[in-house]
């Protein structure tokens, strides 16, 4: 398929869509070829950043940035060779803005002041393998308890100081016509949240985990590393007010960047008798580009072997490699 002088193909498997291939908007159910509008729904105007490859038509079924599908035609004139890109993808040395770069570096300096520079430099990047999580997961509460204790151990937290609790976003039926979502009874912005840190005072601290997330072990690790980072900052009295972005950065500093990055976007497919499509759920506060730069910055500071980068999804790995190269070439600054 050709679009505006570019060749359209899946950046992961090479599958080529045709003019007749159709995608479905998850908001208004409009059916159209997403590449003709660069991912913008002609029905409701929603802009889709990512596009799913069609497994049913011979593709891999994976999600990729819509902009990465457009490949320049080598024989085309220079003006036609430019592919459609988002502002953060345009040719540059860094995948983050200068402001974001400075915020990350200042954030790490703040954490070094809190925890000690030598201590933060000594922490490894945690990988999703048996080296750190030697356990067979089946999506149970017992699995979540194991993850909770293991992540707490890796973050130098005594798990007995915190109670792990569970809730469900699924409505529960009572008398006819009455339903209730359990999390609605809890204080705070819980809707759509995978986890929550709660300090009830008098030494009572709780982390609440949504039951519907337990079948995603990597997502549970990412969620608990973030909630336990709240404990490191608030529960250990290093900060008085909550800062979700700095909490995300703390989770990365303690080695959980791979889990935070790979869990930032979660996609799920749906299908009815006449329609099919996908939904996207965002987990976390720092976007993938900032997570990748933060991990690259830490890797240089810790002089790490970055062979663990193969655990990153393809998009984040590209951001990481660009960041790692840039930092290596500009260490003095």
Poorly predicted ranges (pLDDT <50, ≥5 residues)? 75-91, 183-192, 267-272
Q: What gap, in angstroms, lies between the N and C termini?
A: 44 Å
Strand order of the largest sheet: 1-2-7
Shape: globular
How much helix is in the residues? 25-40%
Total helical segments: 7
Count of domain modules: 2
Strand content: 15-25%
Main structural class: alpha+beta
How many extended strands?
14
Radius of gyration: 22 Å
Whole-number mean pLDDT: 81
Order of helices and strands: EEEEEEEHHHEEEEEHHEEHH
- Describe the sheet with the most strands: 3 strands, antiparallel
How would you sum up this structure, described in words?
The chain is an alpha+beta fold. The chain folds into two domains: 2-87, no CATH class; 98-329, no CATH class. The protein is 32% helix and 17% strand. It has seven helices and 14 strands. It has helices at 98-115, 117-122, 141-154, 217-235, 244-262, 288-301, 314-329; strands at 2-3, 6-8, 23-24, 31-32, 50-52, 63-65, 70-72, 163-167, 172-173, 179-180, 195-201, 204-210, 265-271, 276-282.
